[in-house]
């Protein structure tokens, strides 16, 4: 017959050994986890702000790469009504995000992030992608015209609209037949056709609105400069980046560099993010 008392004592002894071993493993694992950074260490949220004649989908390939590297990402819906109003929209989005933010702006989106990040300690770094970095008192239109090379004016398609307050305005599109050559010459034809159809217009007055603040004066910035850009001249991009003391990456690309060279853009964003990761 089996001695139940002896069996019970044996089971209890074995259980105690297993429990002690589990505790030792748990303590070791805990020590290892806190010894240094891991793949699951908190990372800043990347907030992407598109520019005129585009929408959030223009970031899709960049988003894929950032998510693969475990970055939380939000592609903001930029209203394209004016830097001050658009910056307020982006600030509202940022306020609902926990932790540090790296703010990224393409094209006119650069004007928006320069305003949205001003005085905002949550924003730790700025990344400009073929973008405007206006100083107070400057407009996107003024910076475009400061140097030769932009062929954008001849491709625009103005559309009248009525604002909620009853005033009239002009929305600017790029003519679909000219979109690829002007905006996305190094993007596959089928993707450029989709982008042309889905483009979002910008209120003309947004390009004429003067900047009132410039976050790049006191926040670290990175800049992807596009050498084949027909929207913002190369000389204008270099002028703005040098003035802001940005860390520059130049790419032989069209204005749609986030679509044609997503690896480069994602890499620069991660360079900025690594400087603010706890």
TrEMBL record:
<keyword id="KW-0732">Signal</keyword>
<protein>
    <submittedName>
        <fullName>Alpha/beta hydrolase</fullName>
    </submittedName>
</protein>
<dbReference type="Pfam" id="PF12697">
    <property type="entry name" value="Abhydrolase_6"/>
</dbReference>
<dbReference type="InterPro" id="IPR029058">
    <property type="entry name" value="AB_hydrolase_fold"/>
</dbReference>
<dbReference type="GO" id="GO:0016787">
    <property type="term" value="F:hydrolase activity"/>
</dbReference>
<feature type="domain" description="AB hydrolase-1">
    <location>
        <begin position="46"/>
        <end position="268"/>
    </location>
</feature>
<feature type="signal peptide">
    <location>
        <begin position="1"/>
        <end position="35"/>
    </location>
</feature>
<dbReference type="InterPro" id="IPR052897">
    <property type="entry name" value="Sec-Metab_Biosynth_Hydrolase"/>
</dbReference>
<keyword id="KW-0378">Hydrolase</keyword>
<dbReference type="InterPro" id="IPR000073">
    <property type="entry name" value="AB_hydrolase_1"/>
</dbReference>
């Amino acid at each position: 017959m089996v001695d139940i008392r002896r069996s019970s004592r044996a089971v209890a002894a074995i259980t105690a050994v297993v429990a002690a071993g589990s505790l030792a493993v748990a303590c070791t694992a805990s020590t290892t986890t806190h010894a240094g950074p891991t793949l699951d260490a908190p990372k800043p949220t990347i907030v992407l702000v598109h520019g005129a004649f585009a929408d959030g989908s223009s970031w899709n390939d960049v988003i894929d790469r950032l998510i693969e590297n475990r970055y939380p990402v939000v592609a903001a819906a930029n209203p394209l009504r004016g830097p001050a109003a658009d910056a307020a929209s982006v600030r509202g989005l940022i306020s609902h995000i926990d932790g540090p933010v790296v703010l990224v702006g393409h094209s006119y989106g650069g004007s928006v992030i320069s305003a949205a990040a001003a005085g905002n300690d949550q924003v730790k770094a700025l990344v400009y992608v073929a973008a405007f970095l206006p100083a107070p008192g400057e407009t996107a239109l003024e910076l475009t015209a400061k140097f030769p090379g932009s062929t954008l004016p001849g491709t625009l398609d103005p559309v009248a609209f009525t604002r909620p307050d009853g005033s009239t305005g002009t929305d600017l599109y790029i003519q679909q037949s000219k979109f690829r050559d002007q905006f996305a010459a190094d993007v596959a034809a089928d993707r450029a056709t989709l982008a042309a159809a889905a483009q979002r217009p910008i209120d003309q007055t947004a390009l004429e609105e003067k900047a009132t603040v410039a976050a790049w004066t006191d926040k670290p910035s990175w800049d992807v400069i596009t050498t084949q850009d027909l929207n913002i001249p190369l000389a204008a991009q270099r002028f703005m980046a040098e003035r802001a003391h940005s860390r520059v990456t130049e790419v032989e690309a069209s204005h749609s560099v986030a679509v044609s060279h997503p690896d480069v853009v994602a890499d620069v964003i991660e360079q900025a993010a690594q400087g603010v990761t706890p």
